[in-house]
């Protein structure tokens, strides 16, 4: 049986005889040949590159140039600059030095032979950045230099044969500053930039399009698997294009034919229509421009970078309707509004159209390791309020593509600030372990989660290469759950954003996906929010995204917890200052109706502190100029802050100076009682005890104050003791720390606590950023050369030790023990501690200074304070993940505890720490030479303490560390008893792990709000923020004493009212999850 089989006849024309030998293509040679078509060099005048332009006009007949060079590296405004005389100049002249500005006046006439050409551009290259301004002072186009973004499309009205005038503001820096002999090297202050091109150019648009066709089809040939038919086809298409071009002599007609050949592979890619059609696209491409708020250039340059970059994007959107562009950092928008209102309005109109998308919800793209909890809160408060106030929308995606690791409470804070999504990619830089997910749920210490996506292309500055699109799937690690991904493209770090080339390349990639397949389909026109919304929908429909609990520890840049110590110290100090001002100013508004809550000044201070938390500023990875800037700004912050503090204390009735006969009191701004012996300069020794809010001075004799004693033994050792500890200092280090009550030695046999150690510190590349694991091998103990007694008691005893590090560097450390005021109830009160204060003269090169505390405590995990909580990290090197954490970030304390006993190390300004086995090590100073050649050189002062404690880690450490950073403020007050109830009014009772962290007035209150960003809402309230600090469910009461609170609500970080809470007497009952942050609005 069988059907009718039709015989297949041989093709009639298939030749019988082989005409000539035909060889198999030698693959490597034919691949290499592709380069000939578009490369510069020996074939440039014969290949496609020779056909890119149809005409060019240069010289003063067509482009007449004059220049004004402002003195003293000034960056004048347009009006100021153009009011000066301009002198003639010409192509070939060089301008400088580094960081100077030069204003060019350009009179341009299009010659007759170019007027009818399809596309006319002005090409300008000074190998530095620049901004093009219209004659009447509107900035319209940013220039990058060095052959990149050097073109400006001439408006059609320029084709009239008349001379047209415009200006270029030239900045004497490259996109990445002025690094001397390498990008991250310190700037060369004396760089000059030559003007090499100022031409009118007619572009051969088809040749330009063919260039991109050939690039992308060539990439398909190279990057598709070589065993795929798609790769072979791409190669043949490219070879055919080259052969056709050669055969036709590269004529315009031939170029059109070549494009036809390319279309066989790409389809028609000459418009945004390529994205029409509803086939499923796995890759959502989004334009982006990462502008480091400071890095290898100062803030002043960033302001200009923002205007350059964003005006170009607005322009690009008009020519490429598929472009959606997102940009973060409210600070940059604010600068744009202040200095470039015309560009800001242009951005605003694009935001309205939906193509320009503010994202991130934070003030800057900040570091997340070191800012305090409330700083993280305010990044969102100031960011979201700016975006809402100016664009009518809050962000839903937290955006930190470049920040150096992500602390564990961020998901909780995001959720409390209206954001459910998080984007980054930085963990792809890990140099030890490969982070295992790209799309997952990231879970905070309290259990809150956000959906996190890390772009599989592993970049936030993709050049929209074929390979970026391909890697969006090949490097996707979460495809079991979902295969979609974001492709974030556009020049970045120094600004820039997408270029027309990126957009042309992506059109071709999409064309290939639709026409040939194999390449993941890329779509444009969606927002980041659209992308995340689809993931959330999927989760709703049952997709179980993988979870990651706790911090996203970044396995690189561990030196950033220590570099630029002064900046970090300023951060810590300003955070505490801001806390105290807000707390006291809030109380002052209750006491004194005429007192004005200093919202405007607080906004200035917060915005400054938040700015300095930018991810190259606070971590210490910027150039010296940036730290000159931040030093100046912090100085303003402290000056303003001291005044605000004094004003608030005035309003509360305190005396301005200490000379009156009024009673001496200590102001305690912490929400719990303190008991401290205080030796104020020029005062009788006093004890401040049992006080909450206001603590009265009491004569030590009236107290059961155990004195501290010191003696020098015959062997030259010093023994310091109070009623809790006996401390032996031998050869300048602590060789014994005996806890009387626990009857326990804290230092292991042979151990040396407070030992200064020096490490050789030469990371693989990123000096200021990295400390590499091998630095540990170079540990050298620094011997103490001299020690002597400084304080002999009875309230404080101390020994001074002197250590010479090298010829130019030394450390002088004061080891002290204070009299204990907690006699008789040690278990409940703050334990005593051994305090150390080191003054360091630091003149080293590529060295790392640390101080060690070996302790007789054993645990496989140590605890470190993080924002609103505790992170536990291994003390061993079992796995590569454990070992990667050889240097970690802590806030005010680190703790190593075993069952029943432990030791905390407190600090007043440090963030780097390591616990290896039973060795606790506080990182003090580094000495990187790039990108700041003088980082950390000079004098430093740091306080730290070793605090042994019976029992495990608990609220005593949390409170002691806070008090250690918040010394009591001594003042005089005529009637302390009258103001004491108000100062003690706000507190949390119940579980001691509950911390009343922040007290402030409502952002939108009628007597507080400035109305500048957001409308004044009216009403008056106090916002109180509480968190659970140790990781257990906690109940208590938030109390307000005599403050006339009418109603209470739970609110989020943005102070939106949530559920009402029943007021019960002068307070409310509260209950918090482990590590929960909860804010309350107390309506007055
Ligand atoms: Zn960055």
Automatic annotation (TrEMBL):
Enzymatic class: hydrolase
Gene3D superfamilies: Glycoside hydrolase 38, N terminal domain, Glycoside hydrolase family 38, central domain, Golgi alpha-mannosidase II, domain 4
Family: Belongs to the glycosyl hydrolase 38 family.
GO molecular function: alpha-mannosidase activity; carbohydrate binding; metal ion binding
Biological role: Degrades free oligosaccharides in the vacuole.
Enzyme Commission identifier(s): 3.2.1.24
SMART domains tied to this protein: Alpha-mann_mid
Protein's name according to its UniProt entry: Alpha-mannosidase
Annotated Glycoside hydrolase family 38 central domain residues: 555-634
UniProt-listed GO biological process terms: mannose metabolic process; oligosaccharide catabolic process
Keyword line: Glycosidase, Hydrolase, Metal-binding
InterPro entries, per database record: Ams1-like_N, Gal_mutarotase_sf_dom, GH38_C, Glyco_hydro/deAcase_b/a-brl, Glyco_hydro_38_C, Glyco_hydro_38_cen, Glyco_hydro_38_cen_sf, Glyco_hydro_38_N
Single GO cellular component term: fungal-type vacuole membrane
Pfam name, any one: Glyco_hydro38C2
Catalysed conversion reaction: Hydrolysis of terminal, non-reducing alpha-D-mannose residues in alpha-D-mannosides
SUPFAM superfamilies assigned to the protein according to its UniProt record, in alphabetical order: Families 57/38 glycoside transferase middle domain, Galactose mutarotase-like, Glycoside hydrolase/deacetylase
